[in-house]
Amino acid sequence: MIALRPVIGGRELANVVGVASGTFGYGSEYERHLDLSGIGALYTKAVTMHPRPGNDVPRIVETPAGLLNSIGLANVGRERFVVEKLPGFASMPCAVIANVAADFPEEYAEVVAYLDANDPTGALWGYEINVSCPNVKAGGVALGSNASEVERTTRLVRTATDRPLIVKLTPNVTDITQIARAAEAGGADAVSCINTVVGMVIDTARRRPVLPAGTGGLSGPAILPIGVAAVYRVSRAVSIPVIGMGGIMTTDDAIQYLMAGASAIQVGTANFVDPRIATRMAAEIERFAIDAGVDSIEGFHSLLEPSG
Amino acid sequence: MPLFTARVLANQEVAHDYYQLDFSWISDAPRPVPGQFLTVRVGSSGVPLLRRPFAFSDAAGERASMIYWRRGDATRAIAGYQPGDAIDVMGPLGVAFPEPTDGAVPVLIAGGVGVGPILFLANALAARAPYPILLIGARSAQGLPRVRVDGRVQLRTATDDGSAGYAGTVIDLLDRTLDITAGDVELYLCGPNPMLRAGHDLAARHGIPAWVSMEQTMGCAVGACMGCAIHLTGVERYARVCTEGPVFRSTDVDWERL
Question: What structural domains and CATH numbers belong to chain A?
């Protein structure tokens, strides 16, 4: 039995498969019906300074092999998060990582400091800083596409917590490696990539975009190659672990990310199709490793033959 | 949110482009009740990607049914299912239609694909008096489903083109032929949004309670993704159709912003 345990900021996760923020709620939606102990990490729905109602409706539309969403970070806000959600995390059989979103750098740090201060028992394993949401006016992509702002945000959050700190990157930039290096310079323990890809669907009969916001974030198998390429490039640009995500539906998809250089992966949209998928994938990845003679996460990276 | 593999028992066209799928229901899953829905995974590739939600049209013993409209790739695929085929189902999900208050006559109104959950409710409410009145509307006679309706249910139909039953919308049928102000009445509606809204307007005008089953594109179907929101009146601006619905009190829905 081999154990593929990603180490981020000096802490170990049980396995390489996480469930992505926004696709698994706070875990409680699934807890009664599924055994979550096989999940490596549960990334919560983003938590913000104040409650947010979310964007106008409809918020999602299916595209060829994809899902375009504009949820708008609908969430209960940091105070209700602490009161209503945090107690449940303590008893959850998997690591829970709070995904944090904000309008500006100082606010990210303030939310993280608040969560840290209100979680003395350490129910939260760490934080994932969302500087990549394509569906909000402030923070999100606007911030995450600016390397110096990403570095500053990461540094501010770094001073607010000693727990593992992951910065979630957007693919909607000219050079994602620049942003990744900025996060690393700011003190991130890992980067996760990719968040959704900006997209639009037009209802030609109504002659307007289906989503009232116009654009949304594309996820699902349609974006798999975009994510794999991002991880391939980012993992060669930074020395911190890279968490790969975007369009993972099958174990083979996950292994593509691991071979590309990811130290862990996240399953997102696939949870909607099959909420049991993360647990099954973790077991299948381990089986693949045994068959391939891989006994560490780095072993996956070296499986990839040089191209060209 | 039980998730399991069911077996197709029957799959038959009940009206033009409307089908009823009967499938096995495992005994240790909760028994579906009228208003609740399930999701079905269609195929195993990325197209179609998301599970599709369908309201239950019946459930008894180790058997459940849904009525669906064949209109896109996913429902076309489902229309091809044969008895014995395995289907990946998740449910029962969502909140049920509430019971009518004691003595109130339930008036049930279905349009188009909304017939499934309304039929389920009609047959359930037929167990005791006052027996329900069921109004079913379709574009034309060939859109009216050939389905089992309990003999105690008073059934009336309407078609837009007048080819069967009352000539006009099902809401016209309600407004013109039933005196809903005469006694204690509660409305239950499922169908296209314009029909629901017309039903709500009528109910609101007469101060009659109305329950509507709403539709919205769904992501997770269990309350996690916030994707299937609709606008509400009042303080909470949005509600998730999958978990706070699909059944809502009609006065809670913001009909101006659907």
Answer: 7-301 (3.20.20.70)
In A, which residues are within 8 Å of B241 by CB distance? none
B88, B41 Cβ separation under 8 angstroms = yes
Based on the fold, state whether residues B163 and B241 are members of the same structural domain.
no
Distance CA A280, CA A140 (A): 32
| Confidence band for A1, pLDDT divided at 50, 70 and 90 | low
Q: What whole-number distance in Å separates Cα of residue B107 and Cα of residue A247?
A: 46
Which whole number is the average pLDDT over A7-23?
A: 97
Please tell me if residue A269 touches chain B, with a CB cutoff of 8 Å: yes
Looking at residue B222, which CATH number applies to its domain? 2.10.240.10
Per DSSP, the residues of A12-54 read E-SSSEEE-TTSSTTSHHHHTTS-GGG-SEEEPSPB-SS-B--
Q: Which residues contact A159 (CB under 8 A, 6 or more apart)?
A: A109
Residues of B in contact with A269 (CB under 8 A): 49
Tens-digit pLDDT profile for residues A102-123: 999 999 999 999 999 999 999 9
- Domain, as residue range, for B254: 214-258
Q: Residue B158's domain is classified under what CATH number?
A: 3.40.50.80
CA separation for the pair A108, A151 (Å, rounded):
12
